[in-house]
Rab GDP dissociation inhibitor (Saccharomycopsis crataegensis), 445 residues
Amino acid sequence: MDESYDVIVLGTGLTECVLSGLLSVDGKKVLHIDRQDFYGGESASLNLSQLFKKFREEVPEHQLGRDRDWCVDLIPKFLMANGELANILVHTKVTRYIEFKQIAASYVYRSGKIAKVPSNEYEAVRSSLMGIFEKRRMKRFLEFIANYKEEDVSTHSGLDLDANTMSEVYYKFGLESGTKDFIGHAMALYSNDEYLEKPARETYDRILLYVQSVARYGKSPYIYPLYGLGELPQGFARLSAIYGGTYMLDTPVDEILYDDAGKFAGVKTKEGTAKAPIVIGDPTYFPEKVQKTGQRVIRAICILKHPIAQAADCDSLQIIIPQNQVGRKNDIYIATVSYTHNVAAKPYYLAIASTIIETDNPHVELKPAFDLIGEVEEQFISVSDLYEPKADGKADNVFISKSYDASSHFETTTDDVKDIYERVTGYPLILKKREVEDEEELNAS
C-alpha cells in the first residue's frame, strides 16, 4: 500500500463518508480507512447479532427473526426533506443508490399526551394543542412565517429578525407558553430554551425549513432511508469509489505520522504506509486532539411488537418531549420506525429514545419516553460522551469531526461537514440548485 494520496480519511461515520465522497468528486485522491469491518462508525445500522454482541457480548436464543431482517440504527436521526443533507444527496446524486420512505408523522408531548405538530395555518386551526383563540393567533404567526419577504417591509409585521428576539416575536403574536413550546422545540427543533433571547432570524429559518419540508411530501417533514441510516455512509462510500477513492475496512491504524513541523504526514497500517498532507477523522482516532463538550447523551434502543399506543395508525413517527413539559433543561426525543422500512422483522417496531444527561440517574431521565413507548421485547442502552476538536486543524492539517449530538435530525451534522469541507479546501461547499429531475431523484414513498 506504500502510496501517496491527497487526503486520508479515518472512520466511516456519516460525516467522514460525506466528506470522502465530496472530495473524490472534486478530483482528490482519497484513501478511506476504518478499523471496523462495516460502514457507519458511530452512525452504523447493525443486524441483530451485531447489536447483541455490541451491547451484551453474546447472542442469546431469541424469536426475533433472521439477522438479515434487521438494520438497527445506533444514532436515531431523520432527514429533513428540504434540509442540507437532502441537498447534498441530490447534489452528489447519491440518491441513485438509496431509497427513501416518508416518516408518517411528527408529534409533540403535552400534558401527558401526544398531538400532531401543526405545520401550516390549516392544521393549526384543527390542532388539539390549542383553544379556539390561540388557534387564530397561531394561524396568524404561521401566515407571517409563510409570507415574510426580506425586501417587502409590509410583510415584516413591524419586526426586525436580526434585532428582535424570538421572545419578542412570540409576544407580538400573543402566543401562550405551550404554543411557544411546540414551535420552538417541535418545529424549530431546539433542544432547550436558550434561543428565546437570541435574534429571531435563525428560528425563523428553522421554522421555514420545517414548513417547507412538510410541504414537500406531506405527513411530516422527515424522510428515512430504507434499510436504515447505515445506507447513507455506504452511499457516499460508493460515490467516492466511483471517483477513484480507495476503501480499506477492518484495517486498524498502527501509527499516525507527522513531519518535523508537526504536520500530518501519513499513517501506518498492516498493509503498509500511506502518505498524505491532510487527514480527516472521527474523534476516536485522535483522543489527544479532542475534548469533551461537557455533555453526555443517553440512547435507548427498544424493540417493540406494537406501534406507539397514542399513534397506533403510524408505522413511523417522531415524538418530541419539550423540556418544560417534564421539568428538564433538555428535550427528550423518540424516533420510531418499523418493519415497513426494512429495518426490523415483521411485525416488529424500533423506538429509540435519546436525551442529554442532566443527573446521575440517566435511565430515570428517559422515563417519560418509556411511558409512551410501552411494553418492550428487548432494550439496549448506551451512554456516550460528546467530543469536539480542540483546534480547527489548520496548524497540523488534522481535521476532526464532532460527535453526533442528541438532536433528532442531521442538520448539525451537515453543518460540521460544510465547516470541515471549507477548512480543508479553502472554499465553501456550494450546492447546485435543484432541477426538476433532481426533485424526482429524492422521491420518498
User: Anything to note?
Assistant: The chain has a mean pLDDT of 91. The chain has three domains: 3-57+81-90+227-291+387-441, 96-105+294-386, 111-217. Residues 111-217 form a domain with the Guanine Nucleotide Dissociation Inhibitor; domain 1 fold (CATH 1.10.405.10).
